[in-house]
Amino acid sequence: MMSTTTTTLKTGRKAIPTLTIMSATTSPMSQRTIEETLPMEKQASILNTNIQSILLTLKESTMKLQKIMMKNQNEMRADINELKEEMRKLKAEMKADISKVEDKVGIIQQALEKNEATIKEVREKDRMN
């Protein structure tokens, strides 16, 4: 035996059905339907367990990946700082080398000017003789 209860909600001019409650007495046919749905529910439960297991594995993998990424980032920062320091040293060495070259160029220019002055003096002496 089955009974149905329906409640309606009146809004304005229309009556809108909102809730239907059904109650049934146990019969052999309904018992068979329940027994047929049990394996499907077990499959759904197994499926949910598998999904949860996969999600947990993904979470663990993500956490491991994050740790590796953080480690790599820290190592990369250390390497970058080391390279920056090496570049500063090289830059200072290059500046010192450039300064030495500029000093040598200055000495060479002075020697050239002195030689040109000496050549000029020698030519003037040759003209007078």
Protein traits:
129 residues; alpha+beta; two-stranded antiparallel sheet; 1 helix; 2 strands; coiled coil
Outline the structure in words.
Keywords: Coiled coil. It contains one helix and two strands, in the order ββα. It is α+β, with helices and mostly antiparallel strands. A two-stranded antiparallel sheet has the order 1-2. The protein is rod-shaped and about 145 Å long. A hairpin with a 2-residue loop joins strand 1 and strand 2.
Outline:
The longest helix has 101 residues, at 28-128.
Instruction: Decide which structural class fits the backbone.
Output: alpha+beta
Sheet with most strands:
2 strands, antiparallel
* Weakly predicted, low-confidence segments: none
In DSSP terms, counting alpha (H) and pi (I) runs of 4 or more, how many helices? Answer: 1
User: How much beta, percentage-wise?
Assistant: 15-25%
Give the total of beta strands.
Answer: 2
Proportion of residues in helical segments: over 70%
Order of helices and strands: EEH
